[in-house]
Amino acid sequence: MELLALCVSYGVNALFERPNPYSGSGVSQHGLDVRMAQADRLARATGMNMVAAGWKPTAGNYLGRVTKPRILEAVREGAGERAAQLIEHLKKGDMAKEAERLLADTGWLPEPLRLTNLDEGQTGNAPADGGSSDEATLPDFLSEDGDSEDQLDAEDDEPAAIAAE
């Protein structure tokens, strides 16, 4: 099992990077979404729970590497608004240490380590009879079976466009 885990780890990239739309290199938003969905699917299949595995946000592994607003957001989510107000005046290093103390036993995880909700991407627009809902969502011009005579006559009156070479 350890060998299998090692082999799988080389094929899974769950690194959360900021997409850069202006760079040819790096990750796109779509690539990041696909990467996180695959990592999430693997985590669900294996029953991985980062809190149960013992991961805690510390100044060394997370809190010292993010911005002050992100630290305050983490403390708000994990320990409440009052705790965030207590540390908002501190410098970043001290804020990260205090946030580590405040988040120690809360079970808070950063967003990339959380499992996403399966119902987020699903919509409730499926028909009750189990049939396809494609006809209901198609625009009128796509749902027509063929061209009517009026449309064909109108198209003949328009001059043909010639592409410039």
Short description:
The protein has 165 residues and is mostly helical. The chain is 46% helix and 0% strand.
Extended strand count: 0
Specify the number of helices: 8
Class based on secondary structure composition and strand pairing: mainly alpha
The coarse silhouette is globular
Average pLDDT over all residues: 76
Radius of gyration: 26 Å
The topology string of helices and strands comes to HHHHHHHH
Helical residue percent? 40-55%
Distance from first to last alpha carbon: 63 Å
Main beta sheet: strand number and arrangement? none
What proportion of the residues form beta strands (DSSP E)? under 5%
Residue ranges: pLDDT <50 for 5 or more in a row?
121-136
Structure write-up:
The protein is mostly helical and 165 residues long. It has a domain at 56-108. It has eight helices and no strands. The chain has helices spanning 2-11, 29-46, 68-79, 81-87, 92-103, 134-137, 140-143, 149-157. Helix 3 (68-79) packs antiparallel against helix 4 and helix 3 (68-79) packs parallel to helix 5 (92-103). The longest helix has 18 residues, at 29-46. The radius of gyration is 26 Å and the shape is globular.
